UniProtKB/TrEMBL annotation:
Low complexity bias spans: 57-73
Superkingdom assignment: Bacteria
UniProt region (Disordered), positions on chain: 1-111, 551-571
Lineage: Bacteria, Candidatus Eiseniibacteriota
Protein name from the UniProt record: T9SS type A sorting domain-containing protein
Transmembrane region(s): 145-167
Domain PA: 438-527
A Pfam family the protein falls into: FlgD_ig
Residue stretches making up the FlgD/Vpr Ig-like domain: 638-698
Keywords carried by this UniProt record: Glycoprotein, Membrane, Signal, Transmembrane, Transmembrane helix
Amino acid sequence: MAAGLVARRSRCGGSEPRADLGTGLAAEPGFAPEPRHVHRDRSRHASPCGALRGAEARIPGPGRARCAARPGASTPNREASRRRRDHPPERTIPGLFDRAPRRSGPHPNRLRAQSVHRTQAPLGAGSFRRPLGGEIAMRARSSTAAFPVLPLLTAMVVATLALLLLAPRVHAATFNLINLDAAGEGFNDPTPVAPVGGNPGTTLGQQRLNVFNQACFIWGQYLQSNVTIQVQANFDPLAPCDSTSGVLGSAGAVSQASDFSGALIANTWYSIALANKLAGSDLAPSSSDISARFNSSVDNSTCLGPTGWYYGYDHNEGTNIDLLAVVLHELGHGLGFQTFTTLSTGAFLSNRPDVFARNLFDRTLGLRWDQMTNAQRATSAFNSGQLVWNGPGVKANASHYLGPATVVRIDSPAGIAGEKNFGTAAFGGAPPNPPLQAQVVLVNDGVGTTSDACEPIVNAAALVGKIALIDRGTCNFTFKAAAAQAAGAIAVMIGNNAAGAPPAMGGSDPSITIPVVSITQSDATAIKGQLGTGVTASIGVDNSRLAGTDLEGRPRMYAPNPIESGSSVSHWDTPETPNLLMEPFISSDLTDVDLTQWAFADIGWVGPTSGVPAGSTPPTIARGFAAPNPFSSGTAIKFSLAQSGQTRIEIFDLGGRLVKRLPAAWRPFGMQSVDWDGTDARGHRAPTGVYFWRVSAGAGVQSGRMVRVN
């Protein structure tokens, strides 16, 4: 899932000596190992609210999202809820992280019309590991999938709108939090704390509950359902967790349903919360819809050292872990950003595709996943850079959320030429625009692994004006890059030291001003093999494309080779910039549900609609967004002008009514930022809720959505 176009990852460079994780994996500085994904059995409550009914902490008001629970509450089925079964990992993937075990395969149940499938654990669930002093790695328990043709998806969106017109009024989604914590722990922890970042709680448990409520409120303003979404959740000490890495949490859908009244596509799985929304009734009233767990040990020094949860609403977490972003991400999986296909075999769950999978398209095969054999799907799941989301909502709105693409390309020799997959760094200079081009030179420090730049560089003269190729390992990413810059290199490529996706690189060093990227081990090996004849490469911005998309503007899905259990397919790919909530890594710029809301429109949730025209007409404006979003006091409308001219900015409420017109002004070409102080035309504070901004400039119009919170 990072911090801006260049400083995408908010990881900090950690201790360099590799930490053995017990799986043969190594912890790179600033890039901690991923947790094993624990697949758990969860008992369901006979009543979704149990003993909590009548003692609920709600966000009041019609149509408002809420999570209902209270500190100090426990459920009558507490012991039953703790009966769990660990599923052993299918295998450990070599590379950066401990990988989560994959599901063992489709559930044996045969399902009929209006069938509801119970999973043995939350599927599509996300699991987190926190690197030392830096970024959290988000992993979704995922598999593989399929997707229907664009006409079918378009028809699906049309069908959604038709149902909306014919159906009773649908309200903003509401959430009910089923607190599985016992008295004195988790959501009920009485430890006194000071309010922080807009969170008024004065005990640890209340602040945790408030953050969960806040995440529910935010999702509820983007989604619509007449059926309350039941979320069972608790804080527990989760293992493994030590001073360098640890499991942060997991979540996912408790069950799926297909062929129910209101289903948009026959013979297709829907996460139960989405199925309930489409059916207009609770298809599984005796169980929860989403199950989530979070690591209470993050708040003590034995887990991740001094790093702890950040409980504010303002995403000002610093080196701590933003719980709000984590909860938003995990709820996203439970709400439907997941596939139930088994990635290792390509098999659909009970031989049926899920609606998420029906939006997946493989550019190499030219096929939707529902057109493929199991073997083809299994291969597509690690077809890095070629697996894309083809839903019409996402494709039409990607330009509102993504900036121009960064490209890393080998220009010569012809045998290895072409664009390469790459990872970004949380430090270093912005990718140059236009791209830089230079010869690639392998670093030599003369000691041990001579190409890792962990000792003084002995071929410094050869690096002047060149792109330095450095092997990963042994010392911090920032140490390597700083050494290459000091030697005169104009850019750095860091080759991975294990098979798999190029790593996102953490660390902080403001003195590093040259661009730094990572590449795969196989690409680094290919470059080394051609250095004798000379290798030329380019690194920089391609203004003709959106970051992380193909030539048709379809965003890429995370599909590294080899498959990363718990990560592959059920996330956006990491080159998407600015970063998206449902990427596999969290970062400091995740303040909105961003493009993910349009993926939810594509799978059947109500998309963002209002009296404000969505999208943009021909290109005088590009890349608009509000930040921070959500916001509590004020926010800034940011957009890029393709040419100078007069601009007008208007703020509307959810019903399309004009709230305020900001002063019109002539603005120059380039990126713009205009503040809205959160007041209406009369100077009164606008109430909490959803708002839309609209920027007009010449023939161009662009609009976007933002949420005001308390």
